[in-house]
Amino acid sequence: MTVTEKTIDFTEMLRKLVDEHYPNTECIRMVLDNLNTHQPASLYRAFPAPEARRLLRKLAFRYTPRHASWLNMVV
Hints:
The radius of gyration is 13 Å and the shape is globular. It has helices at 5-21, 40-46, 49-56, 70-74; strands at residues 28-32, 59-63. Strands 1-2 form a two-stranded parallel ribbon. The protein is of the alpha+beta class and 75 residues long.
Protein backbone atom coordinates (compact mmCIF):
# COMPACT_ATOMS: atom_id res chain seq x y z
CA MET A 1 0.00 0.00 0.00
CA THR A 2 1.35 3.41 -0.92
CA VAL A 3 1.79 6.18 1.60
CA THR A 4 0.19 9.44 0.52
CA GLU A 5 1.52 12.89 1.26
CA LYS A 6 -1.50 13.51 3.53
CA THR A 7 -0.66 10.40 5.53
CA ILE A 8 2.94 11.54 5.94
CA ASP A 9 1.80 15.02 7.05
CA PHE A 10 -0.65 13.55 9.56
CA THR A 11 1.78 11.05 11.04
CA GLU A 12 4.59 13.60 11.30
CA MET A 13 2.21 15.91 13.15
CA LEU A 14 1.40 13.07 15.56
CA ARG A 15 5.09 12.40 16.15
CA LYS A 16 5.66 16.10 16.90
CA LEU A 17 2.75 16.11 19.36
CA VAL A 18 4.13 13.10 21.22
CA ASP A 19 7.85 13.95 21.12
CA GLU A 20 8.02 17.75 21.15
CA HIS A 21 4.80 19.30 22.41
CA TYR A 22 3.70 16.76 25.05
CA PRO A 23 6.70 14.54 25.85
CA ASN A 24 5.72 14.03 29.52
CA THR A 25 2.03 13.33 28.93
CA GLU A 26 0.77 9.79 29.46
CA CYS A 27 -2.15 9.97 27.04
CA ILE A 28 -3.05 12.44 24.32
CA ARG A 29 -6.75 12.20 23.43
CA MET A 30 -7.48 13.30 19.89
CA VAL A 31 -10.92 14.02 18.44
CA LEU A 32 -10.86 13.26 14.72
CA ASP A 33 -13.21 12.91 11.82
CA ASN A 34 -13.46 9.60 9.98
CA LEU A 35 -11.03 10.40 7.20
CA ASN A 36 -9.14 7.28 6.15
CA THR A 37 -5.82 8.96 7.02
CA HIS A 38 -6.94 9.46 10.64
CA GLN A 39 -6.44 5.83 11.63
CA PRO A 40 -3.78 4.08 13.73
CA ALA A 41 -2.85 2.06 10.64
CA SER A 42 -1.47 5.25 9.08
CA LEU A 43 1.34 5.21 11.63
CA TYR A 44 2.26 1.67 10.57
CA ARG A 45 2.31 2.75 6.92
CA ALA A 46 4.55 5.74 7.59
CA PHE A 47 6.93 4.37 10.25
CA PRO A 48 8.54 1.06 11.19
CA ALA A 49 6.37 -1.02 13.54
CA PRO A 50 8.32 -0.27 16.77
CA GLU A 51 8.05 3.48 16.16
CA ALA A 52 4.33 3.24 15.34
CA ARG A 53 3.69 1.23 18.54
CA ARG A 54 5.67 3.74 20.61
CA LEU A 55 3.54 6.61 19.33
CA LEU A 56 0.26 4.71 19.66
CA ARG A 57 0.95 3.96 23.33
CA LYS A 58 0.51 7.69 24.00
CA LEU A 59 -2.39 8.40 21.63
CA ALA A 60 -6.11 7.77 22.11
CA PHE A 61 -8.27 8.34 19.04
CA ARG A 62 -11.90 9.45 19.43
CA TYR A 63 -14.00 9.83 16.29
CA THR A 64 -16.91 12.09 15.49
CA PRO A 65 -20.19 10.31 14.61
CA ARG A 66 -20.41 9.04 11.04
CA HIS A 67 -24.06 9.78 10.38
CA ALA A 68 -24.55 13.12 12.10
CA SER A 69 -22.77 16.34 12.67
CA TRP A 70 -21.01 16.23 16.02
CA LEU A 71 -21.82 19.94 16.41
CA ASN A 72 -25.54 19.13 16.30
CA MET A 73 -25.05 16.49 18.97
CA VAL A 74 -23.31 18.97 21.29
CA VAL A 75 -26.09 21.56 21.06
